[in-house]
Every structure is written in C-alpha cells, then in structure tokens.
Automatic annotation (TrEMBL):
The keyword Lyase appears for this protein: yes
One annotated Gene Ontology cellular component of this protein: cytosol
Record family assignment: Belongs to the TrpA family.
Keyword check for Transmembrane: no
Record key words, sorted: Amino-acid biosynthesis, Aromatic amino acid biosynthesis, Lyase, Tryptophan biosynthesis
Subunit structure: Tetramer of two alpha and two beta chains.
Species name: Litoreibacter janthinus
Name recorded for this polypeptide: tryptophan synthase
Catalytic activity annotation: (1S,2R)-1-C-(indol-3-yl)glycerol 3-phosphate + L-serine = D-glyceraldehyde 3-phosphate + L-tryptophan + H2O
Enzyme class: lyase
Length: 269
C-alpha cells in the first residue's frame, strides 16, 4: 500500500475535490501572452468561484490542436513559459482553486522525466495531471511515476473500444475526460447527447466525469451538463478570446474573465 497516495486521496476527498458537483473547467494556456496575464486570469477564476482550471504548459507541434490553440502555444513559448515558471505561478493559487496540469509527453513529460514532473505538480498543490500525446506503450510507466504523487486524468474517446475504456478506468484517479468529438481541438463539432455513455461510465467508476472538445459557448456548456457530466471543459474558445483582445489592443485578462464568467453561470444554474 502506498501511504503517500492514500494521504493524497484523503486530502482530495476532504477538500471536496472529488465531490460530484457541476464545475466549469476553462483550459488556460499558461503564458499566453504572458505569465502576468495568466496570473490575472487565474485570479479572476478564483473570484468567480470557478471550480477547476486546466492549466496547459505550452508546447511545440501541437498535433491535436487547431489554429487557435497553436497560436496560443506559440505566443506563450515566445515569452518563455516553460514548466518551472508555470508551476511556480500555479502554486500561488492551488490553495484557492483546483488546478489540473496539462503536460505534453514529448515537450515536457519525457524531457523532464515522468516522476520529476509529477513531484513538481504535487509539491505545488495541483489537483491532478493530464498527459497529452502519451504513447500507449508509455502509459504504465507514467501511471507508476504519478502514483504516490498526484491523481491522473483518464481520457476516453467517445468511440473507444470496451477494452480501452476498462484500462483507462482502472488507471485514472482524478477524473474521467470523455472526449465528445475526435479530431483537432477547436474544430467544428457538437457536444452531442452523451448521456448514455456517461451513464455507462458511472456504472463502472465513482470518479467525476468531464466532457470536453467542441465546447465553445454557453449553450454547449449547458448541453454538456444536461448530458449528466460533472465537469465541462472549454478549451480553444478561451484562447480565441485572448487572441481577439490582443488584436483589438484590449486587455486579454479582462476579456477572458468576462467570457469565463458567462460560461460559469451555466455551472451555477
């Protein structure tokens, strides 16, 4: 028995981080366009009572991302948003809001080492870690490295096979991320009615269930919650608002805060 993980799991439960309550989860690109702007956006999320944030460490060659997020990655990388300063910034907020770290396999996890990244996220007080682009053959190694440090997010595509679903459900410990549409994030898609899939997952796990990919508007978030999910993840739309504000010489932090506030109302209805 791993007492470190047992203690971490008890902390999550005691602090309400594994309670099944509706929660908006904005995907925020760390360092886009600067870490100071990201810091302001995170503070706005705290002030708004947003339940959870997915904080992405920017990376190159984001093959699953659409044009909007690719631009966000590039803006952040141009301003030096690497793992260490991103985690340092996040640590300022983890006692006030749940932050899940999104880290790419090729750009972050493998260069730094699985265990090193997981320990850094744990020490910063993060609520979970979501690996991106992790080859299936490395999944077990990553899970073993995370064990004892930080809960992991399990990703399931809506067209996943029963064996894949079973394997992800066995390994995940933070929440289940049900991808509502396969393709590039930010692409044209509809959340769809995933009620049956959510019900099926609930019969197999007690973990919260998130829906993401294709959620851009208040209506999308509303439909996601109506489908029965606990967490609605909105990704490229946040970066799109930041990009538009930059182009219009407006404050990107204020623009993002207003947009997130409008989405968060659907979680508190």
């Amino acid at each position: 028995m791993n007492t470190m993980l047992d203690f971490a799991s008890r902390q999550l439960i005691e602090t309400g981080q594994m309670v099944h309550a509706r929660s908006l989860c904005p995907l925020i690109m760390a360092g886009d366009p600067t870490l100071d702007v990201t810091r302001k956006i995170l503070q706005s999320c705290v002030d708004l009572g947003v339940g959870m944030v997915e904080l992405c460490v920017p990376f190159k060659n984001a093959f699953t991302d659409g044009e909007t997020l690719i631009k966000a990655h590039n803006r952040a990388l141009e301003h030096g948003a690497t793992l260490e300063p991103v985690i340092d910034m996040a640590s300022e907020f983890t006692d006030r809001i749940k932050i899940v770290l999104l880290a790419d396999s090729s750009h972050t996890l493998r260069p730094y080492g699985f265990e090193a990244v997981c320990k850094m996220a744990c020490d910063a007080g993060m609520a979970g870690i979501l690996p991106h682009g992790l080859p299936p053959k490395m999944t077990s190694s990553f899970q073993n490295a995370a064990f004892g440090y930080i809960p992991t997010v399990g990703t399931i595509y809506s067209n996943a096979t029963p064996d894949t679903r079973r394997r992800v459900l066995e390994q995940a410990s933070a929440f289940i991320y049900l991808v509502s549409a396969y393709g590039r994030s930010g692409g044209a898609s509809k959340a769809g009615d995933l009620s049956n899939q959510i019900d099926a997952l609930r019969s197999k796990t007690d973990l919260p269930i998130a829906i993401g990919f294709g959620l851009k508007t208040k209506a999308d978030v509303r439909r996601a919650f109506q489908s029965g999910c606990d967490i609605a993840i909105v990704g490229s739309a946040i970066s799109g608002v930041v990009e538009q504000a930059i182009e219009e010489d407006q404050d990107p932090a204020d623009a993002a805060a207003r947009f997130i506030a409008s989405l968060n109302r659907e979680a508190t209805r």
